[in-house]
Design a protein that fits this description.
- The structure is a homodimer of 374-residue chains.
- The first copy, chain A, has 374 residues and is of the alpha/beta class.
- The first copy, chain A, has nine helices and 17 strands.
- Chain A has helices at residues 25-42, 56-64, 75-83, 98-107, 120-133, 156-167, 189-212, 250-253, 343-347, and strands spanning 20-24, 45-46, 70-72, 88-94, 112-117, 137-142, 171-177, 219-222, 239-240, 270-278, 284-287, 302-303, 310-312, 319-322, 335-339, 352-357, 360-366.
- In chain A, the strands form two sheets. In chain A, strands 1, 10, 11, 12, 13, 14, 15, 16 and 17 form a nine-stranded mixed β-sheet that branches.
- In chain A, helix 3 (75-83) runs parallel beside helix 4 (98-107).
- The model of chain A has no long low-confidence stretch (mean pLDDT 97).
- At the A-B interface, helix 4 and strand 10 of A face helix 4 and strand 10 of B.
Chain lengths: 374, 374
Amino acid sequence: MPQPAPARIGDAVEDVDTPALLIDLDAFERNLEKMAAFTKNAGVRLRPHAKTHKSAHIARLQMELGAVGVCCQKVSEAEALVQAGIQDVLISNQVVGRHKLNRLSALARHAKVAVCADDADNVVDLNAAAGQVGVIMDVLVEIDVGAGRCGVAPGDAAVTLAKEIDRARNLRFVGLQAYQGAAQHIRDFAERKMAINAAQVLTKKTVELLSAAGLKCDTVGGAGTGTYEFHTTSKVWNELQCGSYVFMDVDYGQNRMSDGKPFRAFENSLFVLATVMSKTREDFCTIDAGHKALGNDQGFPWVHELEEVTYSKPSDEHGRLDLSQTRQALKLGDKVRLVPGHCDPTVNLYDWYVGVRNGRVEALWPVTARGALT
Amino acid sequence: MPQPAPARIGDAVEDVDTPALLIDLDAFERNLEKMAAFTKNAGVRLRPHAKTHKSAHIARLQMELGAVGVCCQKVSEAEALVQAGIQDVLISNQVVGRHKLNRLSALARHAKVAVCADDADNVVDLNAAAGQVGVIMDVLVEIDVGAGRCGVAPGDAAVTLAKEIDRARNLRFVGLQAYQGAAQHIRDFAERKMAINAAQVLTKKTVELLSAAGLKCDTVGGAGTGTYEFHTTSKVWNELQCGSYVFMDVDYGQNRMSDGKPFRAFENSLFVLATVMSKTREDFCTIDAGHKALGNDQGFPWVHELEEVTYSKPSDEHGRLDLSQTRQALKLGDKVRLVPGHCDPTVNLYDWYVGVRNGRVEALWPVTARGALT
């Protein structure tokens, strides 16, 4: 069963039960508009990654501002969003195994669905699954442009696989998935840009080889919030897949821009609201947000507007706030806003977004695809 | 919405969709029986911590074997378990804030509920909340016996707070919460034992001071899977709160016993089943289990029965298996069992347990209190 919402519409923020996942709606809306304007001006399509927010409502807001659809990372994520009304989903990932392939092809009868492949046997399986339910499945070849995770090598291997897809009766080759995930969190601006330049050379060459083989790429997809700016000048990519820009997090906030300053193109709009639940010492207090309330895999949260207070020593349900460097006392029952270390796995821990504006709860949105793992 | 179950009763394990949370039912049942026998022989009560499994069904199995009830860490966790039929719950934690106090006292009308306190103002609030719904709430004083997280200092401070509880019209002082969480993962046997010996001295002294003040401790609770053996000889603690013993994990498996060998008193019964979803290189493959499928906060999972294969480089939805040190090839679609680094936050990511025996799915149990954060 999903958990009850931790607030009611109209509540003061201070009255939200904790831990809770807050969205600062003003900052969030500015983030959505900024990326929409950027991609429009750059002449590229935006297909935001829904693995960040897992919300049908946020996907709709993105599409109302011009996004062509969304990316999902899992079939179950796509199922949840399609069922909630999203009609254009790219699964930017491989789908392997009988049950998942059955679900994928069934879903393609209910929405525009595309998928990535990096293996010839998997292409055979995709074709068979699509044939069984009578759909033509759109397939992108994923190429490894430096992330070292999934994808065939750029160049000839990609052309070979694209030809397999093109020959398959129930599949349609629609382009390339060329995401350099490892580049997103390179802190230095020049190094980050260089990683994307290298990916660009590999992607461009692959597109040209495909073209020479008579295979047109309708879509060349990639880019994340850390590198989106570098993906437009070359005109190699035509569809950006940024996700985290809607919320931002501590991790992305540590990237540096060309002037050496921290990356602040988008605002922190996502917070975990937590309560001081124990205060028996002078130098620290304990709050009610630990590993089950925060994605700490890329580092600990920042304490919003209390810069001298640091979060540490999380256990499953507790975190410590070090008060030794601050004059601001926190007392039992006080609430603090944490900027999550990593937004995507944090969101996945909650059933509800609590949208706030001017100190009041304005929206309660379900995390539609929370826990969609398969 | 909860996710659909990733299997059907009777399926072969290989046919379970992934990632999935498997229980090896034979190993699991042996773990339950072993701890039940240990506590029975030692003459102490067992109140296992349900924050590990979050399952009403597993709680019932534990109580059928003699456990007096369960511990929960959150009011919402207790609500979910009480609603599913568990009638005796200790919230081994502080409950702070108007809404949580209302929920706690309402819950106490429907089950035997106790809670911990470490603050005099909180005791006033607990008393008021209990009075509003007309219940007498059982309250333990939490003392900090070395964990440095919650709890008043042992000794006089605990007596002072216990007196406040005893004076409160709607509260009943029932004992001490004396959990040394920081000791659980001290690797060296002698050091781990020493930490509990220190906690024991502090707890014993506090019990004696309380007794001298006319305050009897019905319950002196504490202990975890890492230290349970050290809590019985002294007869200071009378209620053990171990949780992880039902499943074990990589983290507990790294503790050492008195002979220097790894801690293996309980068996690994919990696994994340994952699938090889990309295999484009010789030296590694990519599986479909990353941060959203595994609690990696205490370290990465082990790959079960493939000792030379190591898990690394997790991202949100992917993990890498290094194959460079093994002759065992893994191919696309192969399934592997991972022993989670940390069982509690791993369980919280899933809606379903898939109980397996003799290679077949025998049980599908909901993770009753999954996501119960507040």
